[in-house]
Write a structure and sequence with these properties.
Elements: H1 2-13, E1 21-27, H2 36-42, H3 45-48, E2 51-57, H4 62-71, E3 76-80, H5 82-89, E4 94-99, E5 107-110, E6 128-131, H6 137-148, E7 157-160, H7 165-172, E8 178-181, H8 185-191, E9 196-200, H9 204-211, E10 218-223, H10 224-229, H11 231-249, H12 253-259, H13 269-279, H14 295-302, H15 306-310, H16 322-325
Organism: Paracoccus caeni
Keywords: Signal
Subcellular location: Periplasm
């Protein structure tokens, strides 16, 4: 399969424009919510659509990616939709334009001897909880859970541990008691017997139980001024990414892993394939942002983010489907 993909990519290379357009894209982590982005890279789709992509990886979490975007040191961010709401509360226009993951994908895991019992929320008191980074969606997950059960962040210790292998190691080495993270970390933890999943929001049912609704997560977003000044660039990024999403839904987890840049594969390949399979339900089939679901992140943020709670948030200004709607129906990798 890998040889076939390489052959297909090589054949399309002849059609690539001689002068590709530079675009800087920052990604917050290697968690699987962001998977469509490296799939597009591995298939050569950004090059196919006339782009030369420079990737900045902030493995410590999405909040660093957001900071880079706002500071102007990157053009496009691969991050979580809820950051667009936070930025509007700070009078900064950050807009999502392609949805990658339509649901949370988060889990809360503990070691085999974990004393936290979700049926008795107070047992979380005193726990050292690993999150990707302060201000990240894993941080929001914990704070919202605590708030819903009459607890606060003062009842636990929140520790940034990144994602993927570093997050798993923090749990395995007992640097933390609990871990809030995504696949592939979630699957690695269970496959290796490092721990167990205590709260699972990868399914729609799990997300509804935790958040009260579907919680859209990974998107491509940019500053409104960059979008206004560079609509053709944004359209090319969208064309390539939507093509990757469509390709993913027509291929198996093993075929998806075959095309990934090697640095995105965490742990052994077989476990990573299982992680991709476990995460398939969260990926958007078409890149469209559903206006029926984006109120869930707003309600979560309002419970503990004073800036958001006190702001008049206009969700229609946090996203656009215009670029996805312009993607040609025929733009599908065979």
């Amino acid at each position: 399969m890998r040889n076939l993909i390489m052959a297909l990519t090589a054949s399309t290379a002849l059609a690539f424009p001689a002068m590709a357009e530079d675009v800087r894209i920052a990604v917050g982590s290697f968690n699987l919510n962001n998977l469509p982005f490296p799939v597009a890279q591995g298939l050569g789709l950004y090059e196919k659509h006339g782009l030369e992509v420079r990737v900045d990886n902030f493995a410590s979490g999405g909040s660093k990616t957001l900071q880079a975007l706002v500071a102007g040191s990157t053009d496009v961010a691969v991050g979580f939709y809820d950051h667009t709401i936070q930025m509007q509360a700070q009078n900064k226009e950050v807009v999502a334009f392609v949805q990658l993951a339509r649901n949370s994908g988060l889990v809360l895991a503990g070691r085999p001897d974990a004393t936290f019992d979700p049926a008795n929320p107070e047992t979380i008191k005193g726990a050292k909880i690993g999150i990707t980074a302060p201000g990240s969606s894993s941080d929001f997950f914990v704070r919202y859970y605590l708030q819903r059960h009459g607890l606060s962040d003062a009842d636990v210790s929140l520790i940034g541990v990144g994602s993927g292998g570093t997050a798993v190691a923090a749990l395995q080495e007992a640097k933390i008691d609990l871990l809030v993270n995504y696949d592939p970390a979630a699957t690695i933890i269970t496959e290796r017997g490092i721990g167990k999943i205590l709260i699972d929001a990868r399914s729609d049912e799990g997300a509804i139980a935790i958040y009260g609704g579907i919680y859209p997560t990974s998107v491509l977003y940019s500053r409104q001024d960059f979008i206004d000044e560079n609509p053709e660039t944004i359209q090319k990024v969208t064309d390539a990414t939507v093509e990757a999403l469509r390709w993913m839904h027509d291929h198996t987890a093993e075929e998806i892993v075959d095309v990934l840049p090697q640095e995105f594969v965490t742990g052994d390949r077989d476990t990573y394939v299982k992680a991709v399979q476990n995460a398939m339900a969260i990926f958007s089939p078409d890149g469209m942002i559903d206006p029926e679901t984006i109120n869930t992140p707003l309600e979560v943020l309002k419970t503990f983010n004073e800036n958001v709670a006190n702001a008049e948030i206009d969700l229609s200004r946090t996203y656009t489907d215009a670029f996805v709607e312009n993607v040609a129906p025929a733009e599908v990798t065979q």
